[in-house]
Amino acid sequence: MRNFYLILLLGYTLGSSAQNGYPVETFRSPLDIPLVLAGTFGELRSNHFHSGIDIKTQQRQGLPIYAIGDGTITRIKVSLWGYGKVLYVAHPNGYTSVYGHLQKFSPSIEAFIKKTQYQKKSYEVEVFPEYGDIEVSKDEIIAYSGNTGGSSGPHLHFEIRSSITEKPTNPLLYGFDIRDATNPTLTGLYGYPLTENSHLNQSEQKIQLNFTKQKDGSFLADKVTALGTIGFGFVGFDRQDLAANKNGLYSVRQIVNGKVYTDYDFESFSFSETRYINTLIDYEHFGAYRKRIQKCFRTAGNNLSIYNTLVNDGKIVVKEGLSYNVELILFDFEGNNIKVVIPVEGRKLPILKKKDNKATDNFVIAKRPNNFDLGLAKVYFPTNTFYENFFIDLKSGIDTITIHNNRVAAHRNFTITFDASKYSEAERKQLFIARLDKKMVPNYASTYKRGSTFTTRTRNFGMYTLAKDTLAPKIRTKNFKHKQWLNNYRYLSLLISDDLSGIDTFSATLNGEWILMEYEPKTKTLTYNFDDKILDKKQCELKVIVKDNVGNTNVLDVSFYRK
Ligand SMILES: [Zn+2]
Question: How does pLDDT run across 68-81, given as a tens digit for each residue?
Fold first, then answer.
């Protein structure tokens, strides 16, 4: 009886879920190397929170990726961007694991996806297999790690989502073993006067605050004088034990006179809210200095669900003659934390630094659609493109327009329409809308053409113009030469590039039949695997066609021999 009870008890603690409600010790690790993170869940990225963990793969590709539990494959995608080659496995406990930037899939999955690629004659494909069609079991090798898609170095992007809501959850909640006894680091502290009449350290503008380390390991900020409604923000990161990577924090708490004002964490969020990261950070500061200040107060347009507690939107109302003790505590997932104390004194003092006057001729009201005619082009901002009203800076040059600057975030796409009627029809074919970068290099913006009206939809501010691409893409062979014998070759590779508008499509045939070429934009390489097709001919004719974004096309015909 007693033994039976013990087994029940053990079964309960090991089997299902811990206090947090997530199944712990159910899933195995997706890799068989120690888990070292190059990125954490919720980490602040461009226009999104990181929706998984990035696991380092020892600067290598091709490490086996294991199914973390029994399940069925519900989605396979091959894309040039984003997750690259990615697998989704739904598990019976209601969670879906996601494995991204893969080099290749396991042989059976690879065969399955290649069938689709040959059917659709496309490298980029997305398939949603029927539930139960491709089952995998725990510990099964389902893929090999890589660097495909929007990845800048070999690693595994790993997610665990709720299968029903598709909300990504923090993978660390499932009990993976990641060594972390290292405290987060605080690198910057800022105070913000938040209303018309408030000031902080005699400034109506944001002020950087100094802080020093105390004997007990916490930090103390220099005393702040303020009046009216104020808020605080910080720059910080977390590091795990085994790598120097600056990763994201897990949670943040702001306590005012002993009361929790702000508390948010990265347990989970939804993809539909991820872009609101631009309201959590001080976007203007990010635009100017590329540093992300996390605000401990909530500003206009912030629809984030990450807050557990938010008193008065995290804003502090400072009254004359009163003192406030503000504490910010930054936590990593393991609970390692650092604290900074900011003493605030309510005092009315003369203002030394006034508000910035940013008035321009054009004021944008966020809750309304806004149309501007700049002569050369028209700009249309739909309702709620922006979080807040602001003075927009619009300039028009001889053949460029400038739409504000990178200090404001657009939450939705807006439209830029150029009139290309002064160009001949032949010229218009090679023209496209380009965004000029800092070095004035034109970057292709997806251009829709209707007669002489060119339109692009974008969220990027900056300088735009019409640019002309007259040169077709370049194609050259990389690992073989025309009329060469290739008996022991496992693959063919070619290099493709375009000078201006960029590569739009590519295709290849071998002896007149479509063949799958894998394209890696980072290395500009096209690869054909000889395993794909058995060649019955001795002499092979390879034809590669590459088209750029305005339709300039190049064709390479090359032959080789194979026994
Ligand atoms: Zn990632």
Answer: 999 999 999 999 99
| Residue pointed to by tokens 């090679």 | 430
Does the pLDDT at position 534 exceed 80?
A: no
Q: Give the pTM.
A: 0.93
* Mean pLDDT (whole number) for 238-250: 93
Task: State the distance from the centre of ligand 1 to the C-alpha of 83, rounded, in angstroms.
Answer: 8
CA of 31 to the centre of ligand 1 (A): 15
Using an 8 Å Cβ cutoff, are 102 and 84 in contact?
Answer: yes
Q: What percent of the chain has pLDDT over 90?
A: 92
C-beta separation of 164 from 89 below 8 A = no
Contact at 8 Å (CB) between 344 and 224?
yes
User: How high does pLDDT run on average in the chain?
Assistant: 94
CB half-sphere exposure, 317, CA atoms < 13 A: 3
CA of 158 to the centre of ligand 1 (A): 7
Given a contact cutoff of 8 angstroms between Cβ atoms, the answer to whether 318 and 346 are in contact is yes
Q: How confident is the model at residue 7 (pLDDT cuts 50, 70, 90)?
A: very low
Q: Nearest Cα to 127, choosing from 75, 73, 163?
A: 75
pLDDT of 286 strictly over 50? yes
Dist. CA 120 → ligand 1 center (Å): 28
Rounded distance from Cα 155 to ligand 1 centre (Å): 8
Distance 229 CA to ligand 1 centre (A): 38
> Could you give the 3-state DSSP secondary structure of residue 8?
helix
Helix (H, G, I), strand (E, B) or coil at 532: coil
User: Quick check: helix, strand or coil at residue 289?
Assistant: helix
**What's the rounded mean pLDDT across residues 300-309?**
96
End-to-end alpha carbon distance in the chain: 74
Three-state SS string across 222-262, please?
A: CCEEEEEEEEEEEEEEECCCCCCCCECCCEEEEEECCEEEE
Q: How remote is the CA of residue 50 from the centroid of ligand 1, in Å?
A: 6
Q: For 197-235, what is each residue's pLDDT tens digit?
A: 999 999 999 999 999 999 999 999 999 999 999 999 999
How far is the centre of ligand 1, averaged over its atoms, from the C-alpha of 52 (Å)? 6
| Predicted pLDDT of residue 19 | 53
Q: Do 184 and 331 meet the contact criterion of CB atoms below 8 Å apart?
A: yes
Count other Cβ atoms within 10 Å, centred on residue 172: 22
Residue 304 has pLDDT above 80, yes or no: yes
49 CA from centroid of ligand 1 (Å):
10
| CA 265–ligand 1 middle distance (angstroms) | 18
- The alpha carbon of 109 and the centre of ligand 1 are apart by a number of angstroms equal to 22
Q: How far is the CA of 166 from the centre of ligand 1 (A)?
A: 17
Alpha helices in 264-413 (DSSP H): 277-280, 283-289
* 385 C-alpha to ligand 1 centroid (Å): 27
The whole-number average pLDDT for the span 549-563 is: 95
Chain-centre distance for alpha carbon 264: 20
